[in-house]
Specification:
It is a single chain. By secondary structure, the protein is α+β, with helices and mostly antiparallel strands. Helices cover 32% and strands 28% of the residues. The protein is built from two helices and eight strands; from the N terminus they run ααββββββββ. It has helices at residues 9-30, 34-59; strands spanning 63-68, 76-81, 92-93, 99-101, 105-108, 120-127, 130-137, 143-146. Strand 6 (120-127) and strand 7 form a beta hairpin. The longest helix has 26 residues, at 34-59. The protein starts with 8 loop residues before the first helix and ends with a strand.
Length: 148
Amino acid sequence: MRATGGVTVLEAVATLALLAFLLAVALPNLLPSPELEARVTAREVAADASLARQLAVSRGTTYLLEFRPPGGPYRSYTVRADGGPEEPGFPKDLPANVQVTGPEVIPFLPSGAAKLDSPQVEVIFTGGAAVATLRVLQATGYARVDPP
């Protein structure tokens, strides 16, 4: 007589094989890609550039967005008043698989403008095949990321 209500070895193996297949298909989509990390990192740094600008305006002193170590390759960045300590929550680490190139320091003046030698400055974030560019405008200190 056959037992009822149990699971056969064949059914268990088939279920495990199906789960392994689904995991193999879904796992690459669950892990962040270097391309995505480059874009996300550029947006985070742009938000912190805007923070530095807002602090410069509200506190009436020059604030710096500063990449470290000096001379690169950059592994972290900070926001601080010129000559002052880092703001709370800084420094922030940059992802190891994202290469960052650009100026070491971007100063924001109390007027909100960025103190630059050109009309704009670019910080390039490269991850895998993706490139995201943070642009800071001299006249306004406005920061934006391309592609959005």
